[in-house]
Every structure is written in structure tokens, then in C-alpha cells.
Amino acid sequence: MKKQELLKYLDGDLLDKLFGFCYVRTNDSYEAQELCSDIIFALVKAANTDGEIISLYSFIWRVARNVYADFSSNRRKYADTFYDGDADDVLQYIPGKEQEDDGSELLGKVYRRIAFLTKAYREVMIMYYIDGLSTAEIAKQQNTSDGAVRQRLFSARQKIKSEVEEMAETYDRPLSLDKINYVIWGTGNPCWGDPRDVCSRLFSKHIVWLCHKKPMSASEIAEELNVPTVYVEEELEILTKGENGKYGLLRQMDSGKYAINFILLDKDVIEKAHSLYVEQIPKICGIISEYIERHKEEYLSFPYLNKKVDLNLIIWQQVFTMSRAFSDNVDSILAEKYFSQTEKADRPFSVFGYVDNNKCYGGGWDEIEAENVCGFSEIYLSNIYITRIRKHFSCGWNVSNDPQIQLALRAINGLEVSSLSEAGKEHAAKAIESGYLYREGDMLYTKILVSAVQDMGRLFDISKGLYKGFFEEDAQVVAEKIAVLIKKVVPDYLLGEWRLANTLANMPVLDSVVEALIEKGILIPPENGIGAEGCWMSVMK
């Protein structure tokens, strides 16, 4: 048989046998994968030469033994990159469109099987030659040295550079991608899996953008971006699986093409959606301000556990809930009149966003839980972060490793300064600076709002009074327009997440409400953006 026919036999069964051959001759699975990669590479090269093969399997195992002999004499020690050679030595054997035949299809399948063995190498190539990052920037992102990055690029550097220039000239456009960024929010429990974590490279963002416009295949994306298909295929797999393998930014359709898997609005759409709420902001802010004035005593009479509280801290705690009153009315109308037959998406965590339009609205609300810390069996902490306030902690923060929070727990009923060690006093000083504590004489007291766990359920009851009887008429008008916009720009299979699109439309309201309340003297922001404002906890002994 001719050597070119060798590709037909490089199937999954043979690869498994070759891996077994490698595994028993190496120290671990990483070295086995490295050796297996070298053997397959040698077979691929052989399949692109002239000549005859008398005995197929004798030839394959002879190649395997020869490669193993070379491997043994000079074992490589790079655990983070399975194939340390030049990945483009493989790419050059893949024919272009003018050369396509049955052999190119077979070679493409073979290369896809071994693609995972060259991941670290290809990732650096993408970041350097496609995303346009420097080796220092790549090293920082990958938590490695600049020298290590340069070493991965060295063998192919000049060759790839010339190919990039040639491709740019051929297609009359540069290979380096234009800058594109997204503002993506999340809601729910991010510990379940946050798909944003696998979309940091510019290359990834461009693929997401193309699939947002319409479902596309790997080859269509590769042609559009002027990038080898093998790179696109790996990126599609990553973006589809996401962080946890269950929820990604893309989904594969029945057609085999890839489409957007989360609400993503382009610049024109998000501007239009925001404008529908911006028109209502003066009225929203006016109603909220009057409402606070009428309910001051009710807010102050809530049974907080602190030695003393003030209205400023309470309103900072409540401001998120108050700012959502109008959009909650819109939500209710949308659910009843426009999406009553739409099944709600059910997952622990969802993301939604828009193409960055140089405007950042609102912020977030993170919560953490803890048990059996400082004499409390249950602890629930929350903090908001917006333009005026920086966050204290993020979801998943470990309270048992945070001495400042622990001091806030100990100081609810007062804590003598003299009882602290020198290290404890240092932590106390930092806790005062960050707003967890305040000092009164020789005593420390908790400054952030504290309530009992049994009262958590009614923390926001007063503010939720805004949700009924204040905005219905204007909300009807906005809901009608938002419904038309959502149905026009959101794919049918994502309509179950229409509430997230409405949340995006409401983004300008929170900051506007905060600024209006600051202007009226109802809210006082922390000096450096971090303080007791917007941070609170509930505890149980």
C-alpha cells in the first residue's frame, strides 16, 4: 500500500493502542501523551511522503519504537505542553482549498484527534499572533515567565510571522483582531460554573460576536477571522463547555453550527433599551425620595443588633431594592401580557450582557454564608458594590480566614481594645478603616448593620412597599416597548431569559437613584469608596 493511505488507519482504536504502548514506557500520563503525540506526528509526516508500505502494522510499530528510542534519550520535562515541537509543521500538511481531496479530510480528522496534545503551544500562538499580546502580557496571564513564553514561540517565530503577513496581504486585511469587549453580568450561584471565565482572549470574544449575529460553523468562523480552523475548533469546544462542562457562552445547534447561548445585546440595542428607562428616571427618583422621607421612622425602628445605627447606612442597604421597584413592575407586566407562555430558564447561575459602549452602570450584590465562627452558628453577609462603593468581598469568600469580619462578629455587643493582641489591634485598625468597626473610648463596636437571622426575611419589606401602587401606569408603556425589542433581538431559544434582558435595560436606574439621593442629602457616600455603607450581616447564636 502507498504511504498516503496510512491516514485511513489512524483511527481511535489505533490511537488507544499507541497510548497504551506509551503509557507502560513512561513515568505518567503526561509523558505518555507527549510520546504519543510524537509518534502520531511522525506517522502524519510519513503519510505525506512517497513510497510503499509492505506490512502496515510492522511499519507503524517500527515508527513507534524509533520515536520512543529518541524520546528516551532526550526526555522533555514540560508538563504543561504535551507536544513541544512546531504545531505549524502539522498545519503545513493540511492542504488549502485548491488542494482539497479525500486525503485532506482524513488528515483533518487525524489532526483534530491530536489537537488536545498541543493546547499550551497553540494557546500562546493565538494570544501572540492573533490577539496581539506581548510575551510579557501572555506570561502575566498564564502565570509563567516571559522566557517560557518566548521558548514556546521561538521555533516557529519567523515562519509564522511571514505566514501572517502573507495571509494579511492575500485577504487584504490584518490578522490582528479589532478590540471588542463585553460587559457581562451574572446572577445566581457562580460557584456552580461561570462561563465568563473562559472568555478572556480577544480571539474568544470575536468568536462569540460572530455566533451572536447568526449560527456559524467552525470553517465559516475560520474564514471570517482568517484563522486556521483547528484553532477555532478548540476555542468553540471551550466556549461551549464553559467552566463546568454544562453551561457555556455558546451552544451547538442541531445543524452542527454554533450560536450564542446567553443574552447579548449590541451597542445600538442596549442604548435603545436604556433610553426606555432613562426617560422615567426623574419620576422614579422623585417618588423614591418622597417615599424615604415618609417612612424614616419605620426604617429606623427595625430591630438591628448594633449599639447605634443611622438612616444613611439603612438606605445604602435598601437602595438596590428601591431602585428595582419600577423594573419589577415592568417584569410583572411582561410576565402576564407578553411572555406568559414562555418557559423560564432553570439553572443555578446565568449570565447576560452587552457590547461595551464605554458606560458602566450599577454594580453587584454578593452574599456569603458561614457556620460556627466566633460563637455564631449561622452567619449571612452581604455587600453591594456600585459606582460609589467598592466591594468588601465576593461570593465564596471564607469568613474563617478573614480576621476583620471576625472582629466585626465579636464586637456586636462591644469588644475591649485591651483584650486584643498586637496582631489583633493591627487587624482592628484595618477593620475600622474599611468600615467594619468604630471605636468609642476603649471599646470597639460593629459599624456595619447587623440583624438577627430570624429577621432576615423582612429586611426589605418597607422598601418593597414601592413595588405596588407607584409605577403601574408608566411601567405599562415601558413594558410594551421592551417586549417588542426583546422579541426582535433575542433568539427564540433564549426567550426564557427575557427577564435578564429587562435587567440590562434597567441598568442606568441604580446609579441615577443613588446620585439623586446624594444630591438631596439623604445618602452620604464613603470617602474612599469603601466603608460600612452597603455592607451588612445577619447572625444566629
Provide structural commentary:
This protein has helices spanning 12-23, 29-47, 56-73, 87-91, 102-114, 119-130, 135-142, 146-154, 157-171, 202-213, 218-225, 229-241, 267-278, 281-294, 296-300, 311-323, 325-338, 403-410, 422-434, 472-489, 498-505, 507-519, and strands at 182-188, 250-252, 258-260, 263-265, 349-355, 364-373, 376-385, 415-416, 437-440, 443-446, 449-452, 535-540. With 541 residues, it is of the alpha+beta class. The protein folds into three domains: 3-171, no CATH class; 182-261, Winged helix-like DNA-binding domain superfamily/Winged helix DNA-binding domain (Arc Repressor Mutant, subunit A, Orthogonal Bundle), CATH 1.10.10.10; 265-348 and 355-541, no CATH class. It has a four-stranded mixed beta sheet, with helices on one face. A three-stranded mixed beta sheet has the order 1-5-4. It has a three-stranded antiparallel beta sheet with strand order 8-10-9. A hairpin with a 5-residue loop joins strand 2 and strand 3. Helix 2 (29-47) packs across helix 3 and helix 18 (403-410) crosses helix 19 (422-434).
At a glance:
The protein is built from 22 helices and twelve strands. By secondary structure, the chain is of the alpha+beta class. Strand 9 and strand 10 form a beta hairpin.
Instruction: Report the uncertain regions.
Output: 76-100, 109-118, 155-175
Overall pLDDT? 83
Strand content: 5-15%
Number of domains: 3
What profile does the largest beta sheet have?
A: 4 strands, mixed
Helix content: 40-55%
Shape: globular
Strand arrangement across the biggest beta sheet: 6-7-12-11
Distance from first to last alpha carbon = 80 Å
Q: Nearest-angstrom radius of gyration?
A: 30 Å
How many β strands by DSSP? 12
The computed structural class is alpha+beta
Number of helices: 22
